[in-house]
What does this fold into?
Amino acid sequence: QLVESGGGSVQAGGSLGLSCAYSGYSDCLAWFRKPPGKERDGVAAIYGGGETTYYADSVKGRFTISRDGAKNIIALQMHSLKPEDTAVYYCAAGTSTGFPFRESAYPYWGQGTQVTVS
It folds into this structure.
């Protein structure tokens, strides 16, 4: 089970943090997002204890994914937000396949949390 929190509204240039509490263990955790009228795409992924991370080109340098294994939480820190970051953000858990943004690698999904940047 995965439960996201921390979404909301923010002005362009601002920052927002998302958290996702998960149960059990997964060696790969990720954040995806679905902008209005568009398909869902991968944003950031973290493998193992956090030694390997992946980011979509559109968020590199602005977003940071992290994992607290002791608390079973993954977080996404978002800075310099842009209107095009507006989307429903989902956390996902699965197994590492070498394709961090392939949705089929993630059998477990949260319900999503809205992020709106104006």
